[in-house]
Amino acid sequence: MLTGQAKLFTPCDRWLPLRWMCGNILWGYSPAEARQVTAIASFHHPHGYAWGYIRFSQLVYHTGGRSETVIELNLRHPGSNDRNVTSGHNWAIFVNPVGHDAAVKFFTSRCTAGGYRWNPDFIHLANPNAHDFYNEQCSPETPLRCEIGDLSGRLGTIDLGQKRVVMSDPNLPLDCQRQLLPGQHPLDGPEVGAEQNP
């Protein structure tokens, strides 16, 4: 993500020890034309199973339009010396906020207070209980066939313990009636979430 970075322009002649100009790389908008909406899913529970954050940012224009949502993932396993890397974690947005069960020991009971995946567009693909059919149809290649809250289906699974990752989603609204706030953002276990069913 380049936003917030600085850029330095120097003279073409390398022998001149001068700096011509510098500036910050920011969102290209005026406050009179848009506002930035930011949301953060924080994973900092002292007894949690992940450490870090997922930041969502989007520009909402006063004319009603909006930019793609930029998603920054910076997640690892807890503990200052934990360098484990696990891959294939499902991730999703659920309809309810985090409850008391966010860090319980038994993984089958973890994050059940979240309810169901956020689905404001009512994607059902013929039979809402046919999970195999849904999993065949929903993929990063066909994201409009996925529930909006099914981020692993629409964007792919994520890894914990790797470098920071930045991606974008054109169909994830952070404002208005279909916004994702204040939903829960659970992460499933490695290898495509064998610990939690959709």
UniProtKB/TrEMBL annotation:
GO terms for molecular function: metal ion binding. One of its GO terms (biological process) is superoxide metabolic process. InterPro entries: Cu-only_SOD (IPR053257), SOD-like_Cu/Zn_dom_sf (IPR036423). It comes from the Eukaryota. PANTHER family: AGAP001623-PA, SUPEROXIDE DISMUTASE COPPER_ZINC BINDING DOMAIN-CONTAINING PROTEIN. This is Uncharacterized protein. It comes from Amphibalanus amphitrite.
